[in-house]
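subagent[fold] <- orchestrator: predict structure for attached chain, return tokens only, no commentary.
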Amino acid sequence: MHRTSVRMNRREVLGLGALALGAAACGGSTGGGGASASSQSLSGKKLEGTLKFYNWAQYVNPVNPKAYEAATGVNFEESNFTSNEQLLTKLQTTKGQKVYDIIVPDADHVRIEKDLGLLMKLDHSLIPNLKNLAPHWTQISYDPGNVYSVVKDTGITCFTLRTDTVKTELHTWKDFFDFLPHAGNLTVNFIESPSEVIGVALNSLGYSMNTDDEGQLSEVRELLLKVKPYVDTVNEVYVNDFQAGKIDLGITYSGDGLRIQAARKKDGDIAVIAPEGRSEIWTDNWAISAYAPDPVAAHAWINFILQPDVNAKEMEYVAYEVGTPASYPIVGELAKNPLVVFPDRILNEYEILETTPERQNTRQQIWNQFKAA
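subagent[fold] -> orchestrator:
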């Protein structure tokens, strides 16, 4: 419900690798951590009186910080960032300073920030509720064993359409892009997100969204230039127009698609399609700053949120999966939606975007040509 505003300006640097399902059970990760604070040093430490929480705006159910304060006596202090890049910059410019406790990076920024020594290794002895995570969330490729992070929630990039105006059945990204020259008078929107649009276009051609192959990138450039005349708008802020019936077909995020569908429930004319084959899956994560002034309280927060009843409240608020299956019966119907709690085909086949400066530059060049066409 609240994901549109927080996802703005943040989808250009994403995650590393695909989910590693069926991997070994979660191993211990107590021991050394970030440059300033080792999780080993937390054993027997007293719970601090404050938790400094640095998060996307409107991205935690307001009832949970209040419940955390009541349960622990810790004062919850929240500030907000607007992009993963801003989060990274803040962590770098305050390195060595005790400014933030809990932070919420996406998958790729977990990788980047742990390699820069900006994240604290988690003391699993202080997070016994890790046992509540689904096994596949304990072996994610960017942080196997939850050494530095715990999944907060997850979603996918998909497409949404009006069933009364899009008369053709579309099941894959190939179907989507093949249909565009036949869209006629329909209004089509692409998200303003070069890596993601180029990524799903690569998927439509049968390629990985993380490819560096020059020939494959040349093919995707040709595809995007071919369909550009049929793309009416390129806009990250699309939910209201879709809800008002002004958009017929568009690349969307899963939570946004469900919001659009719910708003037009009376009309019953919205389908949200999780494409067959490949697409993007993303995660946001709970992590702790390497220089956290209140590391015990930060661990207490993660342990608190991993309680099934507490995480159920998060799931109801954000309308995304939260990683603790015992929350699903509490949530009810929402948790039965395969666009919220994903089936194995999505967990096995979808990709998490991995970015590098070179990869990003290449995709920006393609995007600039697409926008200018």
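orchestrator: received. Logging for downstream: The chain is about 35% helix and 15% strand. Confidence is low (pLDDT under 50) at residues 1-37.
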